Amino acid sequence: MEEIPQNLVMDIHWIHDKTTFPHWTDIRQNIHVHSLYWIQEGEGVFRTDTEEHPVSPDMLFYLRPGLSMKMSSGGGEPLRITMILLSLYTLSPSADNQGRVAPLHALPLPFHLKPRREPGRQLGQLFRRIAYGWVPGSPGSQLQTQALLYQLLHELLQVRAIDHPDRGQGYELFVQMKNELERRYSEPLQIQDLALRYGLSASYVRSLFQQYLHKSPKGYLSEIRYAHAKKLLKYTRLTLKEIADACGYSDEFHFSKAFKQLSGQPPSTVRTRSDGQC
Questions:
Q1: Rounded distance, CA 172 to CA 153, Å?
Q2: Closest C-alpha to 198, from 174, 164, 227, 225
Q3: What pLDDT is attached to residue 159?
Q4: Nearest-5° angle of CA 70, CA 61, CA 3?
Q5: Which of 126, 144, 214, 248 is exposed most, by the fewest CB atoms within 10 A?
């Protein structure tokens, strides 16, 4: 599964709900930013250097930095476009805890996306909320809009994954089960119980995770628990037993064993190295 990069940082340049007129034409002016164009109404054509795309309502166009495009609407109903212009960066941790910021050259999104009816309706509502609520220069609006934009990027990746031609009928079930493991990692989950709840065989559940995540459900759950445990070791003074309980391990012994298998060192060593960094 393609994901939004971790530690994504965004700078909002402009959000605009643009209504055109019959036989309108324009070019993409701001080619050095990431642009999301959601078609609310109307029809037209978008042209890049290599392709021509008919435009209709409930379509998304994602333009990575550097991509030029010409736009036009027909003689009938004019285009209404919600436009979002962003700079995106990734923040990488460093040894001095200062972090390293690097520009993100492209999101894992296609140039254009036509969601199914219900996802398209929900995305349209989200684009409208973003356009309505953004107030340039307002710190409160900036924070609220950023939160909605992170949600939007997540929703777009979900829609893209479900509508991808390589996704089989079991993909939506896989996403539900994956989300459940991520939410309920602190519980004593068994793959057999998960399969029974979804009316599937345990072998089919394992095959879905191998197909879409290239790892077993048990292996993925172990990675989730390990990631939470590592944060608790670094940022809290909980005992190893308390961390084991909080992260779904049966006891401290199994926690230490599983942690060492993934990190190559026992949890006590990680805690010692983290002392003084909080």
A1: 18
A2: 174
A3: 82
A4: 140
A5: 214
Tell me how far apart the alpha carbons of residues 229 and 262 are, in angstroms, rounded to a whole number.
Answer: 12
Q: 90's torsion region: left (phi>0), alpha (psi -120 to 50) or beta?
A: beta
Q: How far apart are CA 53 and CA 251, in angstroms?
A: 58
Residue ranges of E strands in 20-99: 25-27, 34-41, 44-47, 52-55, 60-63, 70-73, 80-92
CB 130 within 8 Å of CB 84: yes
pTM of the model: 0.76
Which residue carries 């999301």 as its tokens? 36
Q: Fill in the amino acid letter for 144.
A: Q
Q: Positive or negative CA dihedral for 120, 69, 146, 158?
A: positive
* pLDDT-above-70 percentage for the chain: 92
Per-residue pLDDT tens for 95-106? Answer: 555 668 899 999
Positive or negative CA dihedral for 191, 193, 199, 202?
Answer: positive
Residue among 114, 151, 135 at smallest CA distance from 39 = 114
Do the Cβ atoms of 34 and 86 come closer than 8 Å? yes
Cα-based distances in Å from 99 to 75, 92, 211, 278: 51, 5, 34, 15
Give every CB contact of residue 82 below 8 A, 6+ residues apart in sequence: 15, 16, 17, 18, 37, 38, 40, 127, 128, 130, 131
- What confidence tens digit (pLDDT) does each residue in 116-149 have? 888 899 999 999 999 999 999 999 999 999 999 9
- Asked if 214 contacts 206 with a C-beta cutoff of 8 angstroms, the reply is no
Of the candidates 165, 88, 83, 190, the residue with the CA atom closest to the CA atom of residue 127: 83
Residue 278 pLDDT: 46
Predicted local confidence at residue 165, as pLDDT: 55
